[in-house]
Amino acid sequence: MPPLPSLPSPALRQPARRRFLQGAASALAGLACPSIVPFVAMAQSPAFESWVSKLRPKAEARGVSEATFTRVMHGLKPDTTVYELLNNQDEFQEKLWQYLNRRVSDLRITTGREKAKEIAPLLARIEHDYGVDRYIMLSLWGNESSFGDVVVNSKYMRPIIPALAALAFGAPRRRPYWEQELINALRIVERGWAQPKDMIGSWAGAMGHTQWMPEVWLNMGVDYDKDGRTTPFGKPDDSFAGTAHYLVERGGYRRGEAWGCEVKVPEGLKKRGGTRSYAKWHDVGVVRADGKPFPRPNDQVSLRVPEPGGPGFLIGQNFKAVLSYNPAFAYALSVCYLADRIAGAPPFVQPFPGGERTPTLAEVQELQRRLTAAGFDTGGADGRVGRDTMRAVRAFQQKVGIDPADGYPGLKVLARLRQGT
Ligand SMILES: [Ca+2]
Questions:
Q1: Which of 201, 330, 342, 355 could link 112 by a cystine bridge, Cβ 3.0 to 4.6 Å?
Q2: Could you tell me the distance, in angstroms and rounded to a whole number, from the CA of residue 225 to the centre of ligand 1?
Q3: Are 329 and 323 in contact (CB under 8 A)?
Q4: Cα distance between residue 130 and residue 350, in whole Å
Q5: Contact 373, 388 (CB under 8 A)
Q6: Residue 300 within a domain
Q7: Which residues surround ligand 1, an ion (CB under 5 A)?
Q8: pTM, to two decimals
Q9: In angstroms, how far is the first alpha carbon of the chain from the final one?
Q10: How far is the CA of 243 from the centre of ligand 1 (A)?
Q11: 44 pLDDT band (50/70/90 cuts)?
Q12: Coil, helix or strand at residue 314
């Protein structure tokens, strides 16, 4: 595995779902329980003004002109609403199968297949120039921004400079990180790549189609459409090229390799560590779950069985490249799995213990309609499962006494909704 980034990955943007992520996501650990000063009253306080004035020389030392600094930071009101989001990252404790069902949804598979046709020429160029598989690109896009939906849907976005300013000022445990990213955002303005009002993204400052943190935009970004500036917004060319560049440079992505595959694992081998070839794994009885032969038997892979009694996976360098984008195993598995599903593969063969099948798009929409009709607002019935829907599910579960009230919008909750409230 390549060294994980010492700072949160570009994908540090969505509220994390973390019981099973915590082990891998040590880079995020500082975010779990920040000590936050009660804040609203301090938002435009002398303390904040004083902090801005101390930031000025640091920004100027990194190439931000006095004029740019003043223009962006003078009178800036920090976005203190980010603290609630920072504190609520562990709001839902999802099991791995729940996380996968939600992220590798019917809607994402269908949309991914449509987009594969729509932007086929761009995907072909990316494959040619960077060697990153088109389905991995599509899946990252789907996972990061619902195929650009958050780029055009203001409901999910906020200006990132006020958000980063609030974090840099008020989240003491990660202040150096947020401060660096705020300064990086100012450097982007300095370069003329964007105006502050156009720099909108997640509460943590990730922007555009593939959710770049400012550092990624600055250092990995590519002006792939050659219009003279690099941007994660607008048409996805620059986003895709910059992200492919990132996967190759920082993740060690290898052209032509698969991420890995689902496997059946003989008892006694399930905790076997080490990296060896598919052929060597085959020699000890590890076989593809779909019964097919390993297509490239000499590629090097390691074995993971994330849950006892559930499916096993052989994972290679390109799985680790996805981990470089977000160091959580569940995240990387969801990206690789969605990539396979968009490419036409069937669901995993082996079930997770206690798991349900993924609800269809029609079932998710029905669940959202029924919840909303019962007084639990899901923020629409579009089939997209976000925090609003999960909160509505949890409130419903609590009302009717479903335990655990985990917020997971699945088949059991739908069945209960059909019985009426
Ligand atoms: Ca461009």
A1: 342
A2: 5
A3: yes
A4: 33
A5: no
A6: yes
A7: 223, 225, 227, 238
A8: 0.88
A9: 50
A10: 14
A11: low
A12: strand
